[in-house]
Specification:
With 281 residues, the chain is of the alpha/beta class. It is 36% helix and 18% strand. It binds S-adenosylmethionine (SAM). The site of S-adenosylmethionine has 24 residues, from β1, α3 and β3.
Length: 281
């Protein structure tokens, strides 16, 4: 194993600072610094970017991002027990790391960051999904970030990149793929973490598109897709009844058969449907 920096191994950091993993904070740490450097490389060219890292914990991914050349890292960590360990990293990396002790769901990091901005995180899964949805639904597009490199439970990662016709295809796939390119870049078994979680994980990399893949109003698209997938086994003429009185006309305008089910409909058709519905409002 090659060494990525001159700081102590993470196992020692955890022992020194008594960072026993707390379940309530979803703490499953990555201790292999070669692996965290590999994850950091998936974020792309870091030299000219500010990286927002959520949930650095003892700092494995933080060290990966810094050793891979990130211009700056802003790390938001809720658990104050991690701060002394993170301070050691900040001291070793000459002002390139700023740590803020806050709940990422409550904290707005924008004024601390200079574009281009990349986001990287190994987060508890519930927090990760909530932040992903927020990052994908800003008031204006393009968003403040250029790319997201995020660890998820494998099953959630599959929902993000899913294509029509699969069980995993649904609201999250459409939300993610409408305005970004989303790929699974690394698969990880439970044993990659300490302590190991119950399920496998995967790193997803999303790159923001300059504009949506197909035109549509975000709120209307979201309403149509939510209605379609809330009753995913029903035919669309039934599941979308509440969306517009003459839904069959809109389905026809979008080239969708009224007897199709949500799972069969691609992003382009959903956007065409949202445009037709919006044109009547
Ligand atoms: N990034 C580290 C790693 O890869 O080893 C730690 C990963 S651990 C899965 C999740 C981290 O997120 C923990 O350090 C936890 O304290 C932190 N965390 C949990 N909820 C948070 C929140 N709402 N805001 C900021 N950090 C949070």
């Amino acid at each position: 194993m090659s060494q990525i920096d001159n700081l102590p191994p993470l196992r020692d950091v955890i022992a020194t600072h008594q960072l026993s993993a707390k379940k309530s904070l979803g703490q499953n740490f990555l201790l292999d610094l070669n692996l965290t450097a590999k994850i950091a490389r998936q974020a792309g060219k870091l030299e000219e970017a500010d990286v927002l890292e959520i949930g650095p914990g003892p700092g494995g991914l933080t060290r990966g991002l810094l050793s891979e050349g990130a211009r700056r890292v802003l790390a938001i960590e809720k658990d104050e027990r991690c701060l002394p360990a993170l301070q050691q990293i900040a001291d070793a990396y000459d002002g390139r790391l700023q740590v803020i002790n806050a709940d990422a769901l409550e904290f707005d990091p924008l004024e601390y960051l200079t574009p281009p901005i990349k986001i990287a995180a190994n987060l508890p899964y519930n927090v990760g999904t909530e932040l992903l949805v927020r990052w994908l639904t800003p008031k204006e597009w393009p968003p403040f970030w250029e790319s997201l490199t995020l660890m998820f439970q494998k099953e959630v990662a599959e929902r993000i990149v899913a294509k029509p016709g699969s069980k995993a295809y649904g609201r999250l796939a459409i939300l993610a793929q409408w305005r970004s390119d989303a790929r699974i870049v690394i698969d990880l078994p439970p044993q990659a973490f300490t302590p190991p979680p119950k399920v496998s994980s995967a790193v997803v990399h999303l790159t923001a598109l300059p504009e949506p893949r197909y035109p549509a109003d975000a709120a209307v698209l979201s309403r149509v897709v939510a209605a379609a997938f809330n009753q995913r086994r029903k035919m669309l003429r039934a599941s979308l009844k509440g969306v517009a009185p003459n839904i069959e006309d809109h389905l026809a305008a979008a080239g969708i058969k009224p007897t199709d089910r949500a799972e069969q409909i691609g992003l382009e058709e959903f956007c065409a449907l949202a445009r037709s519905v919006a044109s009547q409002n």
